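Retro notes - structure team

What went well: the batch runner handled both jobs without manual restarts.
What didn't: labels got mixed up in the shared folder, which is why I'm recording both outputs here explicitly, each with its sequence directly above its tokens.

Job 1
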Amino acid sequence: MTHVDDQPTAAVSRGIFDADLLDRCISCGFCLPACPTYAVSSDEGSSPRGRITLMRALETGRLDADDARLREESSFCLGCRACEPVCPAGVQYGHLLEEWRDHQWRGRHRPPLAQVLMMVVSRTPLVRAMGLVRRHARTRPTAATGYLMLGCFERALFPQVSRAAHRLLPDLAVPTDQGCCGALHAHNGESARGRELARRLGDQLPGDIVTTAGGCVAHLAGVLGPERVRELSQHLALSGAVPTGEVRVDGRRARVALQDSCHLRNGLGVYREPRELIDAVADFVAVPADNSCCGSAGTYSLLRPRDSRRILDPKLDAFEAAGVDYVVAVNPGCLRQLQNGLRRRRSPVRAVHLAELLDAAAGGAPLPRGVRWTLPRLRGRGAAPGRIRIPGTAPDHGETSGAARDTGGWSA
């Protein structure tokens, strides 16, 4: 292991990091129990405190960017930001990590697979074509005050998520030509390009933006402002919409756990909202460590699959031990990670997105594997399940009153 003394940044500075952010760390160690890579390695250098020590050594020139430990730790870190909420000094570790990778992963040092993925999502026509083939949600071009953002790979991998979200929020416009939000670039050594793409997407979607991707919303909120961008559960909670349907399995109310999105929870503090929504349509089951990283971490599961599974496997054990029917994700990367892991072990637990769960409860598409779900009693025929009434808005065509909307969909 490369050894460096833990000293504050000296007078000699290379300008790699924001000096105020780097000096904020007081090396107290509160971050260690929260760090997933420290938990699996028990190595101080693989903790936020240890990595900040390495950053300081890079900043002052005591270590060169080609140092093996610097290369390893800039890659081994999940970037989950679990250290931030527990830090008494308010260290913005996620921002420091982006600055580190901007320097560390330049040119030939950037992981080739990450480079390929960033090239793909930067090409809007290609991303659009992938989504259209898979039939994600879409609307005709129209002036709107609110938009549903389509995640790049979510369009191709999980098009049913945007369809479910749009059934829940049919007033949102869904343009097909929207580009990448830039989160992938920001997390893989091209933070300036990531901010540029976020601003471009903000111009394409000039109103309020709702997204089903926790990782994307944290990045967009940092660039466009949190007042313009909301994750699905956050939007539903703030709008006052309440789900009234129910998901049932084998004649009983379904048991459902949650896997938090790291950036949504640690970056924006959004974690109560999805739990409350789940509990409204099923029996929410709190599972130990459901707030810790699942090992997906954007490109991490592709770049470091073995370490990713080391993070994931104990979580899958916990979900199975809890006897849940479903584990809900609020980020497409987490959904892919959970589905692949559960499929590998032929688990009876199924992973679904929050939008899918709420849509099924409201009378939309059924959940996977023939799960039986039951709609609440309808008051009239022809009512449109899955719609949402936002306080202060006019009713949909054909509605006569709020009472006529009690259909197993949503109320506010």
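Job 2
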Amino acid sequence: MRINKLTPIIASLVVLAVITAILVRYRSVEAQQDRAAGTPISAKVALQQTEGDGFNLSPAAETKSETNADLTLDADEVERRARAEQTTTAAVASPIPISFKEVVLPVQGGIDYAVAGVATRNSGEGVIRLRGVPPGSQFLGALLVWGEISAGGLAAYNVGFGQDCAVLANVVGSPASFPTNPAPQPCWNPAGQFWAYLAPVPPAQIAPGINGDYRIKGLRTAIRNGRCPWGDGACPGPGNALPLSEGASLIVFYANQCIARNARIFLNLGPQTFFGLNTNNHITGPIPGLTTLKHSRIGADGQVGVSNCGLRSIPQISDERTFIGSIPGFGNCRIQIKGDVGGLNRDSDWNGYDGEPLNKLWDTHTDVFSNCLAGQLGYQVQYQAQGDCIVWVVHILGVK
């Protein structure tokens, strides 16, 4: 009888002991993770004040912008520009240095784009692996965009670009195309600023099927040995000597018979630096009532952490979220397309995956979703960051 009466008590003590062991282990693991990150969470505000590691946890005011589209294209507009360039020596006036002079007319179907990038920190070069262009597509034009942290005003300069393992051509990148150059540097070296560059790509450098591996080299960088941007275990980091190359992306425009003739592309240029809430209203003109939206974000300095070459995630800091939707007052569309708690893709836009596993610090992300912006005159992109210093460089909206 006594044994029967003691059984519930013994069971309760066993459960309590298990729970206690779990809690002790959880707090021990949590403490080890905080030590691995270099500082406990309660002291993470000291991670970045003015320089190093790409973080700034000082309170950040919301940054906002409202801009017109820097480039708007559909099949008719590409044909108009191509005819103008083919009948005169003067290029069509545009802040975007792209030429359609070699486009064979008429354009075959509606237009779309593909984009891919590579991180170039501490190397100044890399291979961009462009995929996703359907067979039978007609090449229209291409742009190369890159970014760096540098000191002082910078002029245009040449880089090598072309198909991997082939002869590279010189392409000239200019910072003048970007309306907000330079942007504040993303928390690495206060002696520098972030500069973005845009270069037209010669059609001869694009593979016949458009998809392919493309090499870029000659980007400005103080370090070219491929080291990770952070320390690794007991090994110190490489330092933040300027210039610091961040990354490069290739944007290709093409036409295909399977795409609606009234498909449209809107391109907006930054750069804009943020480490808190960042809101961008892009005025585009009427957005076609087609079924699909495709949106790409190109930018610098995304990362998941700082320790172990930045490969260990710090969710309290790197949990960025991306929203796209109507400009307030002009519709009720709002979609979380990236980030935790409801995103169509719960990963971050700013994880540096263009350099996975190394080097990080450059992102080129694209998502496709249903069109809830039909007939509206623009759209809003909003980022919620928590201290990771980031620069968005290019936004592209495709409607098809």
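One thing worth noting from job 2: Residues 1-51 have pLDDT under 50 and may be disordered.
We'll revisit the folder naming next retro.
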